[in-house]
Design goal:
The chain is α+β, with helices and mostly antiparallel strands. It folds into 5 domains: 3-243, Heat Shock Protein 90; 249-414, Ribosomal Protein S5, domain 2 (2-Layer Sandwich), CATH 3.30.230; 427-557, Rossmann fold, CATH 3.40.50.670; 562-617, no CATH class; 647-682, no CATH class. The protein contains 21 helices and 24 strands. Strands 2, 3, 5, 6, 7, 8, 9, 10 and 11 form a 9-stranded mixed beta sheet that branches. Strands 12-13-16-14-15 form a 5-stranded mixed beta sheet, sandwiched between helices. A hairpin with a 2-residue loop joins β6 (148-155) and β7. α3 runs antiparallel to α5 and α8 (307-326) packs parallel to α10.
Length: 682
């Protein structure tokens, strides 16, 4: 397979194209400036940086095969069959271009405009390889180029010897192997599924390029890499995943909608270059109320969108309004808004630019102005033609937007009636809300509790100055498929909206949040878990800013109260209960199960059994008295809480779709596949 790679298209890319801007010294001192964090995200970012270089080779037409391998000992190995990093002497640094790329910050082949080695690159700052090298305990690079194999090694960014030729080859490409430095990263364990997910996404974006991930970390025998290009050639019995898509973004839309019900069969797709900006868009509407827009610039995911998304939304709204009025579907005094045409939309937007500008080092938002007009023009023209030539699809899309417009008007009436005299004006708060005395949101918190019993205990046990209590009656509406007007007809949701003070929908403003800690405190049973899931769905779909701002928490009340004499301990699970019993030297003699504690060999069992423990099992917060509730669940000095975060929005969106949506077979499959990971309290 590797030998076939010799036919991959080549272009001019030599040592004189590597430009040097500044040195490498700051990286180890301030790694967060270059990779965002030294936590798991930053650790995996090292792989993305090296992979991006290989992917950019593919985008330049010089690479058709990329492999990422996780090796024993914590090493990562990235291989591509591109041209290989130049190894000639750099005219400015007077050392090899390979050494320059690996040891000098802002050195790369992506700065030279028309004369650079790359037409399009995901990397903007040229820091990738050198930053990975600086933050790795050891890095080794092999370059297969012009019949020779060239090698150089580095320790924490410091070169160990000059580039040397170690053999001959008929292949071309680069092999980069690195081990993250434990002095920099507290945790150096890589997440194989996370890597696979990222590579799958990239395989959709770069058509007809093979991308593989191999997990050889648990391989028992020594892996000899001396004469190996692709690790897969060794045919190891280890987990591996390979992606290759010819459909590109259309395939990605189909994959995204695999658990949805499309309202039209044809997936719209356009690929067109406007003013040196390559625009690629694919979309399909589904029977849903959420919008899923995923954006990329030079194959880098833009979680916060940017100018290309703005151009797309503008053209989408204009095109559908024009078509609707032209074909008599809409009234002259009625027009779709941006929200109307987004409902149920799955869209992938990808632009490629030679000179690219991101807002910030993380590349979360595209800032290139030219991308907006290019996207609007390329997409608008093609989508207008699509509607004209696909009348059935056009009818379904216009119908979907019309329904959304009607729902918007109904929702506005509902919001006005609820919020006009609500907390937004500083007036009527819900009657069931026991508010706190403080008006400072930064120190205020609200507990969302299950039922009047838990509400009564928590109201008595709270710190009235800073802690508010909002009891819920029963289970709230599942909002996954509910429109805003139906949602606001629910008293429980209405009370929550007013209590938080943020508003909802287009009126949502997280800056008006009345409590900077919103704590979900439900019972430790199946019903409590269901209510918690319904609340999480509500916050994820309609109050995402509360989650992103770090304001949403889940209380962790104990399951057991263990009392031995005058000593009282609380346990949050079965294992903790047994550990406490063992620490106190007690067997639960007054319980049916005499084997609650494992007695180690050599202990005086008779002496141990003379002690007795009183164990109370809590089924809900209502079973706790106010003092117990305060010291276990509400006291900031002693309580345990989990902060709700969304690390992967696309995956979270998918899981909510499956678990809370209407596709029963998909939900059944998900539950069966993940049953072993469930923590059940039966």
């Amino acid at each position: 397979m590797a030998k076939d790679s010799k036919d991959t298209k080549k272009s001019s890319y030599g040592a004189d194209q590597i430009q040097v801007l500044e040195g490498l010294e700051p990286v180890r001192k301030r790694p967060g400036m270059y990779i965002g964090t030294t936590g798991p995200e930053g650790l995996h970012h090292l792989i993305w940086e090296i992979f991006d270089n290989s992917r950019d080779e593919a985008m330049a037409g010089r690479c058709s095969d990329i492999e990422i391998a996780l090796l024993p000992g914590g090493y990562i190995r990235v291989v591509d069959n591109g041209n290989g990093i130049p190894v000639g002497i750099h005219p400015k640094t007077k050392v090899s271009a390979l050494e320059t790329v690996m040891t000098v910050l802002h050195a790369g082949g992506k700065f030279g405009g028309e004369n650079s080695g790359y037409k399009v690159s995901g990397g903007l700052h040229g820091v990738g390889a050198s930053v990975v090298n600086a933050l790795s305990e050891r890095t080794e690079v092999q370059v297969h180029q012009d019949g020779g194999i060239h090698f150089q090694a580095y320790v924490r960014g410091v070169v160990q010897a000059k580039v040397k030729k170690i053999g001959s080859t008929d292949l071309h490409g680069t092999i980069t192997m690195f081990k993250p430095d434990p002095q920099i990263f507290p945790i150096t364990e890589f997440d194989y599924p996370k890597i696979v997910q990222h590579i799958r996404q990239q395989a959709y974006l770069v058509k007809s390029v093979r991308m593989s991930v191999i997990d050889a970390r648990e391989f028992g025998e020594k892996i000899d890499l001396a004469d190996v290009f692709y690790l897969r050639d060794l045919a190891l019995s280890v987990p591996s995943t390979t992606y290759y898509f010819e459909g590109g973004l259309k395939s990605l839309v189909a994959y995204t909608n695999r658990f949805q019900s499309p309202i039209h069969s044809s997936i719209f797709y356009v690929e067109k270059e406007i003013d040196n900006v390559m625009v690629e868009v694919a979309l399909q509407y589904v029977d849903d109320i959420s919008a899923r827009i995923t954006a990329f610039a030079n194959n880098t995911y833009n979680s916060e969108g940017g100018t290309h998304v703005t151009g797309f939304k503008t053209a989408l709204t204009r095109t559908l309004n024009t078509y609707s009025k032209k074909n008599g579907s809409g009234k002259d005094d009625e027009s779709f808004t941006g929200d109307d045409v987004l409902e149920g939309l799955t869209a992938i937007i990808s632009v490629k630019l030679r000179e690219i500008q991101f807002e910030g080092q993380t590349k979360a938002k595209l800032g290139s102005v030219e991308a907006q007009s290019a996207t609007a023009t390329a997409f608008g023209e093609a989508f207008s033609e699509f509607l004209e030539t696909h009348p059935d699809e056009a009818r379904s899309i216009i119908g979907k937007a019309t329904l959304a417009m009607k729902a918007r008007k109904a929702a506005k009436a509902a919001k006005d009636s609820i919020l006009r005299k609500g907390a937004l004006d500083g007036l009527t708060l819900p009657g069931k809300l026991a508010d706190c005395q403080s008006k400072d949101a930064s120190e205020s918190e609200v507990f969302i509790v299950e039922g009047d019993s838990a509400g009564g205990s928590s109201k008595q046990g709270r710190d009235r100055r800073t802690q508010a209590i909002l009891p819920l009656r029963g289970k709230i509406l599942n909002v996954e498929r509910a429109r805003l007007d139906k949602m606001l007809a629910s008293n429980e949701i209405k009370n929550l909206v007013i209590a938080m003070g943020t508003g909802i929908g287009d009126l949502f403003d997280v800056g008006k949040l009345r409590y900077h800690k919103i704590i979900i405190a439900t019972d430790a049973d199946v019903d409590g878990a269901h209510i918690r899931t319904l609340l999480l769905t509500l916050f994820y779909r309609y109050f995402r800013g509360v989650i992103d701002g770090g304001f949403l928490y889940i209380a962790q009340p104990p399951l057991f109260k263990v009392k031995v004499g005058k000593e009282v301990r609380y346990a949050y699970d079965e294992a903790a209960k047994n550990r406490i019993l063992k620490e106190l030297g007690v067997v639960a003699a007054d319980m049916e199960d005499e084997a609650a504690v494992e007695i180690e060999e050599g202990e005086d069992v008779k002496e141990v059994k003379t002690k007795k423990a009183s164990i109370q099992r809590y089924k809900g917060l209502g079973e706790m008295n106010p003092e117990e509730l305060w010291e276990t669940t509400m006291d900031p000095a002693r309580r345990v809480m989990k902060q709700v975060t969304v690390d992967d929005a696309a995956e979270a969106d998918r899981v909510f779709d499956i678990l809370m949506g209407t596709d029963v077979p998909a939900r059944k499959t998900f539950i069966q596949s993940n049953a072993k990971a469930a923590n059940l309290d039966v």
